[in-house]
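User: Last request for today: this protein with zinc ion, please.
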Amino acid sequence: MILGIDTSIGTAVAIVDPDGAVRAEAESADSRGHAEVIGELIVRALSAAGVRGSDITAVAAGMGPGPFTGLRVGIAAARAFALGRGIPLVPVASHDAAALARMRPGSGFAAPLEGEPIAIVTDARRRELAVSVYRVEGGLPVRIIDPHLVARASTEVVPLFGAPAAELDETTRISAVALARVAASRLRAGDPGDAAVEPLYLRAPDVTLPAGPKKVGS
Amino acid sequence: MSAAIRRDEPLVLGIETSCDETGIGIVRGRTLLSNTIASSMAEHARYGGVVPEVAARAHLEALQPAIEAAVAEAGVSLNDLDAVAVTSGPGLAGALMVGVGAAKSLAVALDKPLYAVNHLVGHIAADILTGDDVEYPTVALLVSGGHTSLLLVRDLVSDVEMLGETMDDAAGEAFDKIARILGLPYPGGPEIDRAAATGDPNAIRFPRGMSRASDMAAHRYDFSFSGLKTAVARWIEQREAAGEPVPVADVAASFREAVVDVLVTKALDACAQHGVPRLLLGGGVVANRRLREVALERAAAAGVAVRIPPLSLCTDNGAMIAALAAELIAGGAAPSTLAFGADSTLPVTEIQVRR
Ligand SMILES: [Zn+2]
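Assistant: Here's the final one, the structure of the complex with zinc ion:
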């Protein structure tokens, strides 16, 4: 059974079977407070699935993009769980989960057609958006443009979608079920990915280099 | 959660991520099994101080290797643990959250109780890992790049009082800033110490913050280092304006003397006023040789016994967090719930965060 944890927007936890069947889902939409809720949501998912920590066989970690402070909480939790149980950690781009979720009826988005592109757009704060592009192949999204930041005013994706990213449907929730399903298919393919890979920060740390000593005058 | 926790000699893993050290400690009761520290200090050097986002990123990368190294050094398995402990605050919020997220998940994965504890009280708990008999009450002076606090500890797990703290910069920060003014690298503490070695501590009389008679009513045990920093900067500017060379060794020694004087004076004043003949030093600034010298000398004259744990237990570390949790467990404290968060301003009276 795969435990999926994503804190790139809210806090989402899910447990799915290796074949992708949902066992439990627990989440909080709050875009803050990830550290407060993460433990209880994992406990809630385990108990809703009627399993114990020792029944989990792999952990999927949502690697973003997303606001850093919250994003790290889920990755830290996913890694710690995998370490505690001695099981594989599968890092998954959160946008990959969002793209997979689009393929299901009832996703709230128009059903994508075979061969057509899908844009996953999430808020990156500071008047920027995080954008990834997928194409539907064999009923599954295949990433063709990796997650990157664009200005809200950017027209970069107009040739693909006939509209700028800011006018496309924005993803405001990442499904931990979809995240765990992406991990499940990677595990089936024998390609879990590098567990120690860095989060998709897409931005250098905010630092103001200290100026030289300031004059204080006399 | 698991069945009743063993109260004697519990095996506890502590996670500390409040500033720029990722600390993982493992203790069995009062016995230290591992004190593993990964520091991101070098990454902050070019910025002249700890950059919160850089620290938080480094914690995330360092946590798993540090836990693995600690477990290997301690010769235990994670499944052997009786409890997991974590710093809930005070500290840098984004940095604390990395540790909190990891600790909660680790505790759930292992089905072990979790103890969320206070970083400052952790510094005091470090002392019990020295193997000596520790007596309370004691006054504790905790000085680092992140805090400058004077505490009265009547009981480690139930009664810690904040007597005073810095109103502006931490003492360690003051060292960093003066080092920068003098053109010395980060971190400033050891650099100032080195530069001061050949200087005269009485060459320049720099101000002692919060020490005027008018300060003593409301801020008897509080500290302030921003005025000192300004005074040093102004003194150097005047020298330069007059076209005279800056005597770096004398400035460093005199600055250090001003910091050390005010720290030790207030700490011993607290001992005298509270009738406590014991003083514990903690925090990274304990590495400062002059601070140790002056504290030992003046405390001896005042009949106060000084305790200084080894430096590896004075700087931020996970062993002190595990040690505090082990004491809480021995005292019968119930685990924390999983609902607590990172609290960057956690008051010292909240030794364990239960909710
Ligand atoms: Zn500290």
